[in-house]
Amino acid sequence: MGRKNRFDMYIDYEKSYRNRRKRWGNTFIKVILLLIFSACIGFASYYGVRLKMDEQKNRNKNEFNMGKNINQDNIEVENLSNKEDTNVLPDSNKDTDSKDSFENSSETSTEEIETIPVNSKDSKNKVVDESKDDKTLQEVDNREPVRVKGIYVTSRAIMDKREKLFEIADTTEINAMVIDIKDDNGRITYMMDSPKALEIGATTNTISDIEELMAILEEKDIYPIARIVAFKDPYLAEQKHELAIKNKDGSLYRDNNGECWVNPYEKEVWDYLIEVSSKAAEIGFKEIQFDYIRFSTGKGMSNVDFGPLAREKTKEDIIIEFTKYAYEKLKPLGVFVSADVYGTIISSSIDAGLVGQNYVEMAKYLDYICPMIYPSHFGEGNYGVDHPDLEPFKIVRKVLTASKEKLDQIPEGEHKAIVRPWLQDFTATWIKNYQEYGGLELREQIGGVYGAGYKEWLLWNAACNYSVDGLKKK
Fold first, then answer.
1. Could you give the percent of the chain with pLDDT greater than 70?
2. Taking a C-beta distance cutoff of 8 angstroms, is the pair 243, 261 a contact?
3. pTM of the model
4. Residue 75: in which H helix or E strand, if any?
5. Greater pLDDT, 45 or 361
């Protein structure tokens, strides 16, 4: 064996032990250093996690406090709304026996609510809406609706038959009067402070105590409706030819009675009607009701010239536009707006086009639409009724059922006028198959109204002589 093998066979244990001790010493130091390093990392990790947990805890606490503040703000706003909404229009779907109740109304869905600062001295009549960043101001509707059962009253009758008419209201279910303010002749029935009416001399003193009359109506809780005859205005037409309907040769158009009409296409006519209506609202009327809100049906209408605007807009277009215009002008004054229309337009597009009355479209811009459904005014066989004047219950119910179906075309949620029909309290001796009308025939018509699901009605008698025996007693 050589040297190498000798050294391999004999081990130097002393040297081996020295080297082993040296190695263990180095290892021990390394372990100590490793432990120290690990401890440092552990402490760093612990404090890092602790710091993170503290931050999350503070964040949660802030969010909780913030949520408490938000909830408190919402509670305060909700309480304020509940406290301030006492002047909002009553729930139209609430059924009540009060005579001031209001049924079958869809208005309130479109009403806007005016918002003002909480500390305003006028805040008792307002509702605050803090959800809108732009602080938009919207109107509060403070009008008080009444379920009307009314009678027509001429300006002469309210002076000559006042006590008798008041007695009807005092002793029966009648709670409203439709009083002539601008009559069929175009005259204003009291000394109204209207610049345009005064300019043309349209005012009269027929109702000589208008303020006293309004006070009595209020005291007796009689709902006052101002009847404003719109486009049948012979007085204005004679005074201002430029506002009148003219024939193609330039002469004034005259109807079967020789009376002139004003031109519905003339904006100045609109403004005159709004001026008169505004003054009626100012004196105390709660509702403005437009009659003759249509075109003439007299002979010779095929020869008239309504002007250049008529080549762009139909009769229906212009009457709808006026209805919308009047509603937007008068509603802010705190009055309701209604209009009388032919009963035949409900189911006859020919009649609608002839007079310019579109039942559905007009109902979108009125609080009340008042179809004149006098049985005597329907032709024999209409609605399957052989002699309408002889069957008042049947014809009224059928016409108003058609009305309901027609107005159902207006989508749910959109504004829709309440239907308040005119009923017949007179005898139509000029038709072939007629009967004497009295309390029984009146009651049959009222039954037809209720049978069709409607709640309000008006009675027409040109002489203001009403069938009291057909009315319920108080």
1. 71
2. no
3. 0.72
4. helix 13-84
5. 361
For the stretch 159-218, pLDDT in tens is 999 999 999 999 999 999 999 999 999 999 999 999 999 999 999 999 999 999 999 999
Q: Exposed, middle or buried by CB within 10 Å (0-12, 13-18, 19+), for 290?
A: buried
Q: How many Cα atoms occupy the beta-carbon half-sphere of 466 within 13 Å? A: 28
Measure the CA–CA gap between 280 and 334, rounded to whole angstroms: 12
For residue 10, what are the β-bridge partners?
Answer: none
**Which element (helix H / strand E) includes 371?**
strand 368-372
- Check if the beta carbon of residue 391 is closer than 8 Å to that of residue 375: yes
Question: So what's the pLDDT on residue 235?
Answer: 98
**Going by C-beta distance under 8 Å and a sequence separation of 6 or more, which residues neighbour residue 174?**
149, 150, 151, 168, 471
d(CA 116, CA 119): 8
Confidence of residue 42 (pLDDT cuts 50, 70, 90): low
Q: Are 438 and 383 in contact (CB under 8 A)?
A: no
What's the longest Cα–Cα distance across the chain? 161
Q: Using CA atoms, how far apart are residues 335 and 276, in angstroms rounded to an integer?
A: 13
CA nearest to 200, candidates 294, 277, 268: 268
Considering only CA atoms, which of 21, 1, 19, 17 is closest in space to residue 9?
1
Q: Are 76 and 427 in contact (CB under 8 A)?
A: no
Beta-strand pair 287-291/223-229? parallel
**Closest to 280 in 3D by CA, of 158, 182, 156:** 182
Question: What is the C-alpha to C-alpha distance for residues 171 and 473, in angstroms, rounded to an integer?
Answer: 6
Q: Is the per-residue pLDDT at 30 higher than 70?
A: no
Predicted local distance difference test score (pLDDT) of residue 223: 98
Asked whether 231 and 184 are in contact (CB, 8 A), the reply is no
Only one residue has tokens 């005012």, namely 203
**Do residues 151 and 165 lie in contact, with contact meaning Cβ atoms separated by under 8 Å?**
yes
Task: Note the pLDDT tens digit of each residue in 414-451.
Answer: 999 999 999 999 999 999 999 999 999 999 999 999 99
Residues 6+ apart with CB under 8 A from 51: none
Cβ(166)–Cβ(199) below 8 Å: no
Q: What angle do CA 157, 159, 162 make, to 5 degrees?
A: 75
